[in-house]
């Protein structure tokens, strides 16, 4: 397979290989060797049809640290605005001798669709509410680093599970590695039949936090929300937001994660997000090494 379209298509060994490769790149970066010549003959296009800060910048940094040539495409400043289709857009970019495409798109399955119609390696950088595989990889990698492994750990994913590609990819990745997973949030924001993925549903946040080693707090995705299904922001924060007082009332110290961007004061207060219990910025740091690993491993298959 020359694509990374979702965690659903990986197995445990694939994840282990990505992590071992990321360990190598992280060690290289930590030795202040910020650039390796590995992908000097590879050209990569980052095409983003949706906004991004972390994913876009860390892919670009990962590509540059591997010495790839990089072009960036943002739909809002492109001929997509004149009606050009996705396939035409990508084929035009590929005709400039591009080897790999990193794509974020609002439609679930956009990466899978593209992989069937163009001749290039595709990495899914988030497709609607479907998957965000590199986010899940960097999340598991950060748990592995902080807790010396993922197997047997109790992880709760809190919040807007229904609209979250981060939740779905994390569930696949964590289950593959032998973690126990619960989801916690308002019933209206939890997909029906999610138990079929091997996760438990908990609607009481305190119980979920008492059970877990790690809480991954998700952003309420107002931009994808059917407003009639949503509790008010105040109600959401009261029932599913975490704050210092709540964490101090638990009988143990848990690890706090968030994929970003944060709605400060909604799903998480600043005194938690910025505390020693939070590994939010470590997640972002690890995103570069993980993306270097994924790009490197795919590029070595297409050469
Ligand atoms: N976590 C994440 O995907 O952030 P961005 O939307 O800023 O890329």
Automatic annotation (TrEMBL):
Pathway where it operates: Pyrimidine metabolism; UMP biosynthesis via de novo pathway; (S)-dihydroorotate from bicarbonate: step 2/3
Xref: InterPro entries: Asp/Orn_carbamoyltranf_P-bd (IPR006132), Asp/Orn_carbamoylTrfase (IPR006130), Asp/Orn_carbamoylTrfase_sf (IPR036901), Asp_carbamoyltransf (IPR002082), Asp_carbamoyltransf_Asp/Orn-bd (IPR006131)
Residue span(s) of domain Aspartate/ornithine carbamoyltransferase Asp/Orn-binding: 151-297
Domain of life: Bacteria
Gene3D superfamilies per record: Aspartate/ornithine carbamoyltransferase
Pfam families reported for this sequence: OTCace, OTCace_N
Annotated positions binding carbamoyl phosphate: 54-55, 104, 132, 135, 260-261
PANTHER family: ASPARTATE CARBAMOYLTRANSFERASE, ORNITHINE CARBAMOYLTRANSFERASE, MITOCHONDRIAL
Membership in a protein family: Belongs to the aspartate/ornithine carbamoyltransferase superfamily. ATCase family.
Assembly with partners or alone: Heterododecamer (2C3:3R2) of six catalytic PyrB chains organized as two trimers (C3), and six regulatory PyrI chains organized as three dimers (R2).
Name listed for the protein in its UniProt record: Aspartate carbamoyltransferase
Organism in which the protein naturally occurs: Flagellimonas meridianipacifica
Gene name for this UniProt entry: pyrB
């Amino acid at each position: 397979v020359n694509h990374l379209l979702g965690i659903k298509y990986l197995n445990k060994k694939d994840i282990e290989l990505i992590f071992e490769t990321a360990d190598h790149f992280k060690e290289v970066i930590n030795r202040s060797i910020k650039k390796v010549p590995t992908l000097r003959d590879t050209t990569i296009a980052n095409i983003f049809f949706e906004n991004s800060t972390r994913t876009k910048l860390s892919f670009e940094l990962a590509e540059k640290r591997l010495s790839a040539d990089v072009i960036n495409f943002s739909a809002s400043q492109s001929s997509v605005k004149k009606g050009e289709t996705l396939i035409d857009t990508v084929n035009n970019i590929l005709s400039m001798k591009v080897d790999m495409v990193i794509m974020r798109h609002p439609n679930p399955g956009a990466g899978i669709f593209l992989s069937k119609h163009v001749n290039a390696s595709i990495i899914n950088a988030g497709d609607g509410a479907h998957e965000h595989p590199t986010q899940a990889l960097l999340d598991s990698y950060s748990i592995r680093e902080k807790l010396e492994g993922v197997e047997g750990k109790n992880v709760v994913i809190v919040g807007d599970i229904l609209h979250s590609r981060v939740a779905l990819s994390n569930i696949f990745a964590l289950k593959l590695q032998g973690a126990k997973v619960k989801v916690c949030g308002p019933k209206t924001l939890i997909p029906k039949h999610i138990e079929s993925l091997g996760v438990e549903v908990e609607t009481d946040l305190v119980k979920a936090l008492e059970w877990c080693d790690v809480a991954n707090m998700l952003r309420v995705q107002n931009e994808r929300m059917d407003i009639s299904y949503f509790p008010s922001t105040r109600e959401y924060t009261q029932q599913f937001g975490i704050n210092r007082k709540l964490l101090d009332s638990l009988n143990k110290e848990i690890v706090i994660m968030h994929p970003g961007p944060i709605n400060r004061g909604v799903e998480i207060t600043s005194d938690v997000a910025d505390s020693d219990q939070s590994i939010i910025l470590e997640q972002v740091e690890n995103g570069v090494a993980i993306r270097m690993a994924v790009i490197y491993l795919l590029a070595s298959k297409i050469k």
